[in-house]
Amino acid sequence: MQLTLEFGGGLELLCDSIKIHNVNVEPQGEEKKITVRHLLSWVRTNLIKERPEMFMKGDTVRPGVLVLINDCDWELSGQLETVLEEKDVVVFISTLHGG
Amino acid sequence: MASEAAAETAAKPRGGRLCTICNTKRAALKRPKTLEQICKDCFYAVLEDEIHRVIVDNHIFKRGERVAIGASGGKDSTVLAYVMSELNRRHDYGLDLFLLSVDEGITGYRDDSLETVKRNEIQYGIPLKVVSYKDLYGWTMDEIVKLIGLKNNCTFCGVFRRQALDRGASLLKVDKIVTGHNADDIAETVLLNILRGDIARLSRCIYSPNAYRGFAREFIKDLERIRPRAILDIIKSGEDFRIATHTKMPEQGNCERCGYISSQKWCKACVLLDGLNRGLPKQGIGRTRGLDAERNKDSRETNGTQSLQSKQCGSLDF
Fold it and tell me: Cα separations (Å) of A72 from A44, A78, B308?
């Protein structure tokens, strides 16, 4: 599945200072769907090069990291359980780096 | 999977909820304050409207006043610059606005953010004044770091920055300074002040660098996840804090050296500068019990940047 991932607010520093990543993520095992939960673990394994604790805490993003799916706060779409679709744009912005 | 047609639209409706205010556009966020699900445009509208109400209800500005906007080039001050110029225009406050930036003299550090501030100057048509540590204090941060190393330089930077805004404001002959802070920063400051038992600072204005705040920030963001209003509740608690009348509070006076507001004989910047100029750069840094304690009774737990909060904001007595 083609997704566009964008990292901002300092999070790009964790993935080679590249802000926008066009990626291809495949469903895992039996699953047909890709949820944000799955995407996060994929990002952690495949994109984050250093200090993963700045990005994640437990199985979710670190508190203070905003997640937008197609310009919409993930709180409105079901957070970790949000089912992603082809060509979705997922933006991660850290709000922990000062104003 | 999505159909071809749906895949073509970049922003397809997800969850499909409409904004509870305009009922026409798709909701983009849930406002922690009200838990309303609203769209971007309605969020801007209600936010700007609330700020306008606060300004009007508290009589914050008078027509004809000169107002400096503390501008770092970061998100908070950029939003502030936009909102101030927009509200000033929309509601005809009749204010003379200025952007005020501080250049610490750290190679490579401010380049990007000063560019942002210069963009703000053009975008909002507000004249920009940049004051440098070199001009104000005779030292750049690079020079200070060369002398004292990387460990304690945050103290200098924080103390000097706080005064730099006031001194810049004095150069611009403004009546007021506005600075941009977000709710997270303020809640964090309230919490830290309570944890430190530092009541005196709670009743003053809040100015906060980002250096020492890691744990409190993580804690309040954890709280917010459980209860979105938690951050605003903490701010409210800070505002409502009442201090027993018999509590001894530090007195506000003026620095005997430079005249800047200070609760001590010398203001913190003068103590630090004196140390730098006499080749004793550690002076005024670290725990101030013992020798320094008499001069700086107020800053018991001064380590790093905390000491700058012992300066009162809001008035410009030189």
Answer: 22, 11, 38
